[in-house]
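Q: What structure does this chain adopt?
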Amino acid sequence: MTLSRPTRQVTEVDPDSPSSNRAEIQDDMARSGPIVATERREEQAPAPAQKGVAVQLEGLRAFYGKAEQVRGIDLDFRANEVTAIIGPSGCGKSTMIRCINRMHEEIPGAHAEGRVMLDEVDVYDPSIDVVAVRRAIGMVFQKPNPFPTMSIFDNVAAGLRLTARRGHLQAKVERALRGAGLWEEVADRLSEPGAGLSGGQQQRL
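A:
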């Protein structure tokens, strides 16, 4: 399904013309109704928004060795909304975020306590597959890190190949790049190195 957006015609009125002439022009425009150009630009209908998941922190505490960096946070992230975490350097913003997808525990001596609920699932439950958690909860870091020896296409396809989800690879890569607003910029150079993109493009990649 495609949507057509009519182009609206604008009539210029000379500010120095007599007021009666301006009134006549306005009356003509009112009688004629909305003016639609004969040529219409076809636009692709936006994809329907996918239902997101909610994240809830319950008594979250994060440690580096014995030093407690995050101290008992209770916080809700509602689905399909953007939440900004603002605070001074070193206050624990990044640590808290890394706890959500269990990257914090990858730091030697670091661990977390409390609960992180992904909808109704506690990602810190002993039965949970940590790899599945990190696959479901992605992160975009401040500094982009594309695979330096891989092409733009291979950077996007790497995760699919790693998890053996290779069906319709071309279509999936294109859909991902469109979702990141990058497709139009790189469609004709997918075989070029991802590291050759600008900083902002690497971030979206």
